[in-house]
Amino acid sequence: MNYLEDGLTLRSWFTTTDHKRIAILYAAGITFFFFIGGFAAMLIRLQLLTPGGAIVSHETYNKLFTVHGVIMVWLFLIPSIPAVLGNFLIPLMIGAHDVAFPRLNLLSWYIYVTGGAIVLLALLLGGVDTGWTFYTPFSTMFSNTWVAITLAGVFVTGFSSILTGLNFIVTVHTLRTPGLGWFKLPLFVWALYATSVILVLATPVLAITIVLVIAERLFQIGVFDPAHGGDPLLFQHLFWFYSHPAVYIMVLPAMGVASEIIPCFARQRVFGYRLMAYAILAIASVGFLVWGHHMFVAGQSLAASMVFSALSFLVAVPSAIKVFNWTATLYKSSIRFDAPMLYALGFVGLFTIGGLTGLFLASLPLDVDLTDTYFVVAHFHYIMVGGSVMAYFGGLHFWWPKATGRMYPEVWGRLAAAFIFFGFNLTFFPQFILGMLGMPRRYATYPDRFQVLHVMSSAGAVALAVGYLLPFAYFAWSLRSGRAAGRNPFGATGLEWQTDSPPPTHNFDRPPPAPAGVYEYDPNAPQPAA
Amino acid sequence: MNADSYPIVDPRHANRGAGAPPEIGKLGMWVFLGTEVLFFGGLMLSYLYGRTHWPGGFAAAGRHTHVWIGTINTAVLLTSSALIALAGATSECMPMRRWTPRLLWLTALFGLGFLVLKGIEYDKEVHEQLFPQAGFALSETGAELFFWLYWLMTAIHALHLAIGVGAVSLFAWATGRQRRWADSHRIEVLALYWHFVDVVWIFLYPLLYLIDRHS
Amino acid sequence: MNEADFRRRRRRIAIAWIALLALMLTSLGSAYLSLGIGNVIAGLVIATIKSSIVVIVFMGLGRSSAMVRIAAAAALSMWFVLAGLSGVDYATRPHEPARYQSPRQLQPLTGKENEP
Lengths: 530, 215, 116
Fold this sequence. Notes:
The complex is a heterotrimer.
Chain A: H1 10-14, H2 19-47, H3 58-94, H4 102-125, H5 138-142, H6 147-174, H7 187-219, H8 232-266, H9 273-286, H10 302-330, H11 339-362, H12 364-370, H13 374-404, H14 410-437, H15 451-481
Helix pairs in contact in A: 2-3, 2-4, 2-15, 3-6, 3-7, 3-8, 3-13, 4-6, 6-7, 7-8, 7-9, 8-10, 8-11, 8-13, 9-10, 10-11, 11-13, 11-14, 13-14, 14-15
Chain B: H1 11-14, H2 21-53, H3 55-62, H4 67-91, H5 99-127, H6 143-176, H7 184-209
Chain C: H1 3-31, H2 37-58, H3 66-92, H4 103-106
């Protein structure tokens, strides 16, 4: 009996402590929020079709980009790969029955749902217009929208992240199957481990920052108000101390997914495995040292800005090492362009563009011109959407057979990947140009000369939306009519492929023997039948 | 069932194999305490900002905290830490197990005592116009900020302590009734949380009560 | 543990408790002496010692696994990163301000602290 058949009532799902079922619960949650955040994005792109902006008022537009950011960052991206793929795969990949604290895992999902509900409540009451970054003094003193409730929702959701991270850290340390040393672990596990460390160290600072903003808003405590001896930049230091590492929370798991897919579909072990593992640790640690690059024009001292700029250049190095190593993995390999591989290769290319443009922004003189323009918007969407969301979809396709026992239809998978890649670039590449031409971000209207680029961007968004909707259709179809997958349809290495698809509730009937090595692929061996 | 008949180690753990079980709960709690360091740390940074930018205001305000209540409370919390450490030791030593519930109840009582004294202190301060609102007693810039941080930091600390008192009371009751789940490992994990709440107060004490006492 | 171990542990706890109270009284006493910057230093140093006693003797960090010690060290280091790099900003603002600095922001460290 597999984990899907082990209890068919709703109650068995809502009281489960099985990490695989909890992963599916999370998948349902984040998909729901993805649609809401995506709908807000569609309204934004509709608004920006014309310079005068005929769809919504300026105030409503402010609420749209705020809700888009808040939902996409905290209720979709941050939980996505960790809480869905991480929860499902980590115990399987290390040969364990479950995570270290299964009941805490279920609690983290309920906390996530509660936080999300509170954010939705704020949205229904009228939303919030401060931007997802909640800068003071606007958020604390001048905004007339539902700031405190939204922040309370984010605060609660943060606990969910912290508990997930805590669970993963203890799981990876204590529940590996005997003989499975650190340097035999899949890079996905390394990536999620590092992500968990960031979750655990950074999120609490966001939590206290939220408390301070709510206190300032409700009681005018003055900690961010110069008239009372406070400093608005203190908010920014505290906020970005979390929010910069947060972007690594969003990208490191994506890198982990790419490191699983690429060797499998190139039939070659990852080039420089140890360096890849160290690069993951380097990204996680140096990523904590760069937050001031969000504050170059905010009033931070020039000396501090120079320090943060230099450190920001440094953090690009391990990311670049990873890109080089993925590329080197493809050299003299035997590549198959299955859907997961299309997503993974798309990830590498688009992440490279996003990362490179981050370097431009890290350069002080360039940033003075480019900050708060569409250049920044394009930069982070290339990484978070072109990078993380593509990797998430790649991971969904790669492990769908394992989780459901069914194959998705390959042709449709490749078609959706193509739509997403094309739609994404059409949406966001024009935004780099818009930014360089001077179009500010978070503006509901704009001068006529920017219209062509905005229309291109909005057209791209339609293609992107189609690309995102297709998988829902064919994944649902595959549940009833997809080909049976078997244990290891892609011929991949890793312990998760050594058990049934779908796995039994306890994953393995007996603790699996540790593999001899990691990514033991042979490009010259015959390919597994598709 | 007498005090000797329930196991020291949760039997579920005994079959898991060498090396893994007792550390799981401890490691989990230490990781959680790490998050708390950063949570309180944000408040500490705000305090650091305030004190370095408005030394006069903080000093003026600092003279108005009730140093005797604060000192007694510090002693109360330090003692409670010693008590729960002792409770943990008794839970690991068969002949001494009958002391575990008593020591845990005593710990909870001390914690409760801290909260009562804190309440009395808060009440005094409200009456002395030290809660920042219209009519706040001190006019130096930074004094109001000090007191906001004082109220926030001590309130969040008190909330953590209250949760601790609840949890310790639960364990005191459970060990008294010889419940199997209240074993020495879990008590050790609970004690870690309690000690951490104590450590936070150890730092709050000089920062809030011992500024500029000598003027 | 056996009874002999228990008695040893009980003694260590008692000694630690007495040390903690003594340190607390020292901290209290030193606050009433006029030591300038020494007051702050004394307060923080004594608090650090007290915390170390709680962490090492009561919480048993010394006899915990390496992983636990690394976790504790990582959290503490990260706070120092937060305070340290923010501190670079605050320390250098009066001397190396950016063009966007408003005079009000620079005021606190230029001595005009009691102006409204």
